[in-house]
Design brief:
The structure is a homotetramer. Chain A contains four helices and 21 strands. In chain A, the strands form four sheets. A nine-stranded mixed sheet of chain A has the order 1-4-17-6-15-18-19-21-20. In chain A, strands 3-5-16-11-14-13 form a six-stranded mixed sheet, with no helix packed on it. A four-stranded antiparallel sheet of chain A has the order 7-8-9-10, with no helix packed on it. The two termini of chain A are 33 Å apart. The C terminus of chain A is likely disordered. The interface between C and D is large, with 72 and 73 residues.
Chain lengths: 341, 341, 341, 341
């Protein structure tokens, strides 16, 4: 029988770094964790008049960290997301001064004044599986598919670092990729005893690249099956779904995020299939899929993916994805409704 | 009745620049062009022993340029691809010294010797709609969907420039995006009288980003319906399909290709829907799709797309896509088989 | 005796591309060319009320191209600048919409409106060797050293291309580096018969990186000694002065311009000294100097330099720099006056 | 009378992050600190046979952190380097696998095997003020000026982060700029009570950009005058010398490091002189100097500088540089000897 850990964070237990905090709970490999996450505004933006720069002190709180029993540097943490469901019937987005891909920022520094700070409130209809955008300067209402995901999933980084939850990197963190949805299994290399993973930043949906810097931010209820692969290192975050294997890179410039993700997909493919390295490079070149996660965070993210039908018969990490799906109660994989990938 | 221009290039008529050449034929707006394209090796790589650096003098020949009657700077050229079908039952790929995303190049200059130059021969089965990869260092054979596309579609550039067909930019050129497939309509801003468009670089299929620098290269038979929108400028290449509108950016670093494509999608969306600019930015942020075309050419490309179902009722360029589909004989839109997007 | 070619361009002879034009004159290797260049505005911006976007049709005219007798692809063109002297006692600068490093541009595309377009008029006092900046929003007058240079020096590109004079690349072009001053020798690889070199874009002075996109633009009188090294290729523009050897790279992102320049300096150093490649890499790492030329043009430029005192006894290109200095009448090398580093 | 704190770290007191550690000593503003730093290898690389990847567990130890009494977030820490002198008569450099600008790295991920790991031992002659390079694959010995500097100077970062000492960012850290030499005053924004600054990574000399990733690494004896500007924030690291004011940016891609540094120089110039913003932009454009510090660390650095003679009469931070020079015993500013530019 699967054991379950239930944890609901108090507001003062929310964390803003990966690393630098003791665990809030211990989890045995093979267990389920039932928890919830606040939105990236800590819930402080509730109407279109709540400007984030005015009402927020800090951004992107995570729930955790959780100590996984037996996890040690060199292992791989496995997080299978059984359910990610909105905890509210509304979500918020915004433009934020000097943040986003189409504005000067503190690093792409420019002499322009910031774009207008503006907030949007989306209605979320979980039953109908839709979110509705309401324009601020006209009467347009635009319906989009509900596609819940977690923007931030990570472990404590290596080398004694503590990193802001705004940052994605080899330890995971603010990956901001729509690929972390219900039914997906995330693999993360362990850097410290107990792994100390944390999650947050739920999005009711998100465009690829999160171009304005903010998705449809909402609190989430999350059920995640936790497991551990001993003695197998994972250099960069990876994701497995029923249909695909996915490698994620985080870097600037964006081509380096692309390079990292493709390099990991090529070497992973070579290892899974027995293909020689340049032969695997060729497979990624013709069958590989790619998309940006975010092009706004301190490091940008891209994923590289290949369909399992192309790599017939591979069983990454010894089939743990299939095992956890069963533990998790056989969730149907939720695929991007207007994506197909 | 639709008039048809048929043109088959002789080898000495193939061109290696956009700009700098007189037209090979004139086309009236509203006509069909039936033609063919050589592969990026000029057909010189026919076995795995034909190393491109040895057997090729130049790369990426195009068919054309074609003079479109009445086209003037400030107009928009419309190319609806009615059919793109492999002219051979084989396609070639390769690693090429100092070319590709996971190798030092002449611009990302490094002290490493080049990766091994290696050639792969794919079998193409048009009836079964598959291509088969044959590994060079093992016995693997991997079947992938046939998804024919043109990598290179462009017009003569502005300012008296002549640009290598290896280069993508605002004039189109070597965009290397799988989105230019049968059923797609491409929009290009006209820079010179007659537009002087040319096409080439057929791929039996291509991964997103074309990571090793070379797709499954093959000659193609192409039928394209040609039209002209007078007095409407198009700043960067755009594509319309039955389901999506797509903007393409070309630049380095890759985030600038992303920015250009998203900026164009945001402003185009605002214009099509009447949404105010930041409201349109918000729609792109939540509903926008993005992927790299190439991350290996002198400029990288990315596309930004949004589903027409999201932007209900828009008719870009006054519905020319639908009109040309009818002229072209109602081709079925061929969608990426393992993509869905 | 040194032969001299004198050429003063008429306005309708100014050119806006490298490549695509016949030569205006022939020059024998070993000759002097006495000529002049217009400023980047074609002389149309004469007061602070002449906004470039209103009064200019095209930018960055060059004088030429000149056919160098006997020059063939694979040779190296040598241009020793004996004198670069302002032809006017005023120079103009400006902010230009969507151009410059601290503003959104057409490639670093942003949703901001452009920065204000503003023009500045500098007084040039050639006798006192100063230029004076006059602020537009206050009474400040700031005196700076006069340091005349040419921003644009290039040959016709390879592959049948014609490139805008705004662009720097392997063929030279709009390098926008202060290193091309009186006393400097520029080396450029020849791509077409006759080399077809052209020059322009005089700056009374320029900051490193030309951050706003426009230097102190002025017409120049130029005397250049022309020579040819047969059978020796030069991959990227190089410069030699009495004190330094310098390699220039042009690319985006800026680190690739850095990489190209350092890679060329390392390999050139290895060839000049007999040092093994990684030993030469080490010398560049500890003794190499670097600075940006422009961080605003379609490709950015950086140079890599090393002092000849470090590489004792080297004679690049068989001592042609020293020979041309004598032909040119032993000009004193003009070094950056406030360039104390 | 100036009070002096003397601190010599034991090996187990060396630190590898900024943030995450308690102070080793307290310092009153206006005091001198006399201390020493280990080299980036922790002293473990002593001969050319000591490969860093074999003999080192961690890299780039710093001495500190030091708590500055009264320092609070929003203040500016002032560090005037009175003396930086080599503590040994030898220094080490190396190529390190997947590190440096001309090699594939873990972020600019490539399929090449790493370049050869090789170590060089330099002799340092402090009296003669020279360092001597000894080639490994030939008999060359090359003499270069001794120009001691500290690569790593920083404070605890904001937001509860702890950052590896390999990383430069707004908190300073591994800036790797030759501008931090004897006679220079460094300004850093304070993020946590006490500032918690630390220093390390002495270089006997370094090329601009540190192209192979490793300078002439050596232990240093350091005397630094410490002061505090209350209530004045400093957004990015700044340096003042007798002759120049300098802003430093840290980012990838390199143009963003350039943008940050230039943006800070422009706004700082505007504030110091009373020039309006675009007028100050113009001054930086014509008089600004720029160079890379490192193009190899997790973030690259560039500086932007302007001569004080250009900005006549400015007294940054109320003249603290001049005051600390007096406290420090009037050190002569040591300028780059071959830095003629």
């Amino acid at each position: 029988m699967t054991s379950t850990v239930t944890y609901q964070p108090r507001e003062d237990e929310l964390r803003y770094t990966f690393g630098g905090h003791p665990a809030v709970a211990e989890i045995k490999p093979g267990s389920l964790l039932v928890t919830s996450t606040e939105d990236c505004f800590g819930g402080a933006v509730r109407t279109v008049d709540d400007l984030p720069s005015k009402v927020c002190q800090a951004f992107n709180p995570v729930t955790g960290p959780f100590h996984v029993l037996g996890a040690e540097p060199g292992d791989t943490l496995v997080l299978h997301f059984a359910a990610i469901t909105p905890a509210r019937d509304w979500g918020m987005s915004a433009t934020f001064p000097h943040f986003g891909a189409l504005t000067g920022t503190h690093t792409t520094a420019m002499l322009h004044p910031p774009l207008e700070e503006r907030v949007w409130c989306y209605s979320i209809d979980a039953a109908a599986e839709i979110v509705t955008f309401h324009a601020r300067r006209s009467d347009h209402a635009i319906v989009m598919p509900l596609e819940p995901m977690l923007g931030t999933v990570g472990v404590a980084p290596a080398g004694g670092e503590a990193r802001s939850t705004i940052v994605p990197d080899a330890h995971g963190g603010n990956l901001d990729t729509p690929e972390i949805r219900s039914g997906a299994t995330v693999y993360l290399g362990v850097n410290v005893p107990g792994a100390l993973f944390a999650i947050g930043d739920g999005h009711a949906r998100q465009g690829q690249g999160e171009v304005c810097g903010v998705a449809v931010e909402t609190a989430m209820n999350v059920t995640v099956a936790v497991d551990l692969i001993k003695g197998v290192a994972t250099p960069w975050p990876r994701i497995e779904t029923d249909h695909r294997i996915i490698s994620i890179g985080a870097a600037r410039p964006l081509e380096d995020a692309y390079r990292i993700s493709q390099h990991d997909l090529v070497t992973w493919t070579a290892q899974l299939t027995g293909l020689e390295l340049l032969d695997a490079y060729q497979v990624a070149s013709q069958a590989g899929r790619s998309a940006p996660g975010n092009v706004c965070d301190p490091l940008y993210t891209m994923h590289a993916a290949v369909n399992k039908t192309i790599l017939a018969g591979v069983h990454p990490y010894d089939g743990v994805h299939q095992r956890l799906r069963r533990i998790a109660g056989a969730p149907r994989e939720q695929r991007g409704k207007d994506h197909g990938n």
